[in-house]
């Protein structure tokens, strides 16, 4: 005979099942990403669907979606409910552009780790070809050659004739 899972979980049960430390659960709660009720003994009790919320938070974090964005997405759900299948499709579609940008940046990072990334260090002989005199620094901070497609397109416009992209 199988027993019915309890509808509410203690913080320890949530931590054990979700793989998230109790301190992180408190942090999520403090940030308004999850919520609990208090028992008469002032102990937290989480609705079981909190596990799904935490799963979404963890997946989003793993792919680099900021908690602020996750919270904004949760806030769009009616009655603050936990994302169901349709909700998840809606949320993930909204994150597609952001994910595409991150995938693009990661692919560029992987492909150009040994090449000049336009960070201003000028430490590689390739920097002379890719970022002579740190001219990419005039277009903004950070590794300019790893940033968005728009930056990449802009860079194409200003590339020295005769140089090729690796
Ligand atoms: S790698 Fe830093 S400017 Fe080229």
Automatic annotation (TrEMBL):
HTH merR-type domain span: 8-76
Residue segments, region Disordered: 147-166
InterPro entries: DNA-bd_dom_put_sf, MerR-type_HTH_dom, MerR_fam, Redox-sen_tscrpt-act_SoxR, Tscrpt_reg_MerR_DNA-bd
UniProt cross-references to SUPFAM superfamilies, sorted A to Z: Putative DNA-binding domain
Gene3D superfamilies, sorted: 1.10.1660.10
Keyword 4Fe-4S appears in the UniProt entry: no
Sequence ranges of Basic and acidic residues compositional bias: 151-166
Pfam families named among the record's database cross-references: MerR (PF00376), MerR-DNA-bind (PF09278)
Stretches of the chain forming a coiled coil according to its record: none
Protein keywords: 2Fe-2S, DNA-binding, Iron, Iron-sulfur, Metal-binding, Transcription, Transcription regulation
Identification of the protein by name: Redox-sensitive transcriptional activator SoxR
Taxon lineage: Bacteria, Bacillati, Actinomycetota, Actinomycetes, Pseudonocardiales
Gene: soxR_1
